[in-house]
Automatic annotation (TrEMBL):
PANTHER family: PROTEIN JAG, RNA-BINDING PROTEIN KHPB. Residues 92-158 form the R3H domain. This is Unannotated protein. Residues 133-152 have a biased composition (Basic and acidic residues). GO terms for molecular function: RNA binding. Residues 133-159 are annotated as: Disordered. It comes from freshwater metagenome. Pfam families: R3H. CDD domains: KH-II_Jag (cd02414), R3H_jag (cd02644). SMART domains: R3H.
Length: 159
């Protein structure tokens, strides 16, 4: 347990430093808050000007989160640590949008009995929608295409 605390401390410190450096470099946000809960680490950028840190369609914040995940993998190759980077409640707002899009696609697939292809999404967003609709139980999902145009398809489950 002490080793896990030490590893978590190193990951949290490095992630916080990296997020802070990126924020300073692009003149975004004012303060980085890093929290730990078990094996989950969240780095949140606070301030009035977090939009550049989020970037268009979340591209910047997703890239920073990818780097944060690589930091965790460097210290704990087993993949036990989950690192999230957020700014201005972007992740919460994006999840709400994805929930709505997923439910609307599922309802449409059931109503029309036709597969519904969603717009391309990042791997983490596709995973979120897959899990959301799997829990629903009345539709099936699968991914199609190649990055960066990989997208999710929602359909009625095969009988």
């Amino acid at each position: 347990m002490a080793e896990q605390d030490e590893i978590g401390g190193r990951i949290a410190a490095e992630v916080g430093t990296m997020v802070g450096r990126v924020a300073v470099a692009i003149e975004a946000g004012d303060e980085v808050e890093v929290t730990r809960e078990g094996t989950r680490i969240t780095a949140t950028l606070h301030g009035d000007s977090v939009a550049p840190f989020i970037g268009r369609h979340g591209h910047v914040i997703d890239a920073v989160q990818h780097l944060a995940t690589r930091i965790a993998a460097k210290h704990a190759p087993g993949g036990d640590w989950v690192v999230t980077v957020d700014a201005g409640d972007y992740r919460t707002r994006r999840e709400a949008i994805l929930e709505r899009v997923a439910d609307e696609a599922a309802d449409r697939a059931l109503r029309t009995d036709e597969p519904v292809a969603l717009d391309p999404m990042t791997a983490s967003e596709r995973r979120f929608v897959h899990e959301r609709l799997r829990d629903r139980g009345d539709v099936a999902t699968h991914s199609e295409g190649d990055e960066p145009d990989r997208h999710l398809v929602v359909s009625r489950p095969k009988a």
